[in-house]
Structure formats: structure tokens, C-alpha cells
Amino acid sequence: MYVVHYFENKNLLLTQLVQTVPSVDDAIKIKGKKGKVSKVIDIDERNIHIQVELDRIVKKKTVDDSKKKRR
Length: 71
Fold this sequence. Notes:
By secondary structure, the chain is mostly beta strands. The protein contains no helices and five strands. It has strands at 2-8, 11-18, 27-30, 33-42, 47-54. It has a five-stranded mixed sheet with strand order 2-1-5-4-3, with no helix packed on it.
């Protein structure tokens, strides 16, 4: 069993106790966000730090209806 710490830049996203460690370029989903593993760092035999690059979420702009004539 390994203790895996997931980081995005310097922000801790998640800490998990897992049996298998993800490798570089594996697709991963954390807190509903998709991403890829960019770097795996072994701290000791049980602790592992994983750098993750999460995909950016593109928000759609809402339509401005204020110019329409109301009846």
C-alpha cells in the first residue's frame, strides 16, 4: 500500500492510500476534473508525490437578453 499525494503546481489536491501507483502520462480524474500525470516523485518506500496537469475548463458566455424588447 502506498500513500499518494496529488499536486497541481504547489497545491495539494488529494491524498490517497492506493495499491498501484499511476505512471507518467496516465489519464486521471480528481474531484470531477480530468488531467494527466506529468511527474512521479518517490519520497520513500511508502510516500509518493505526483504532479498533475488538469485540463482547463472553458466556460460558455451567457446570451445577453437585456436589449430585447419586453412586452
